[in-house]
Amino acid sequence: MNRKARCSYENGFFHVMVQGINKKYIFEKSINKEEYLSLLLKYKEKFKITLLAYCIMDNHAHLLIYTDKIYEMSRYMRIVNSIFAKDYNRATDRVGYVFRDRFNSQYIDNKDYLLKCLKYIHMNPVKANIVEKPEEYNYSTYNNFLKRDGIINDDVINKIFGDKNNYLERFINISNEEIEVMDIDREQENLMVAVRNYIENNKISLETIKKDKKMLKDFCNYLIIEKQYKQIQIADLLNCDVKKIYYIIKKIKETKSSPSKKRKR
Questions:
Q1: Which residue segment(s) compose the domain that 163 sits in?
Q2: What's the mean per-residue pLDDT of the chain?
């Protein structure tokens, strides 16, 4: 099921996933997991990111993030992944890309989905048959929620649950129902199908779209306004700053609303 975000895309909750290129086991060693986590913690204050939860597996990592400014999240993930990739290549005597993409993100548009996403992230090691229970895995925030320590403070708990009263019972009892909808790859595949269809129908290429302002505007209008994909997804697809996409969409909306404003005058 393709989830369609309904927001301004300027702030909110996001389920973020990073994965090794060709599903390579870039976090296989404990030292790699610890370094990636260290970078996530080091830069979250600089970019005003609230890291709500995480689970670092051997070849990918899941994060639950709250941000007031979506472009700050993009910058945050870019610097974390960039530094990790450089260190990883140096330590393993290799060159080239380390991550499959910069990152994939999924906007979370309601509280029920937020709680299911939290459960999904912590159940990853169980689903992968690494452990029998989520509390047995060392590289996730599951035990931090149980003990209210690490990154799990009152601010994090209030953001997720609304208040800290009885949060623990609610955290433990989150339903497993419909947990499969958390698969970011599925949404990304749907996006790529939409992009491929658009390119084939218009007989153009992504490179042409990037260079032509009108084509880029039409492309963004189709995928973001009509199909309701996220601005950050299109920015990643085109390898550009999400601010650029934001202003394109802003201008499109202003243009569409201007005739009605003139009639009112």
A1: 12-179
A2: 86
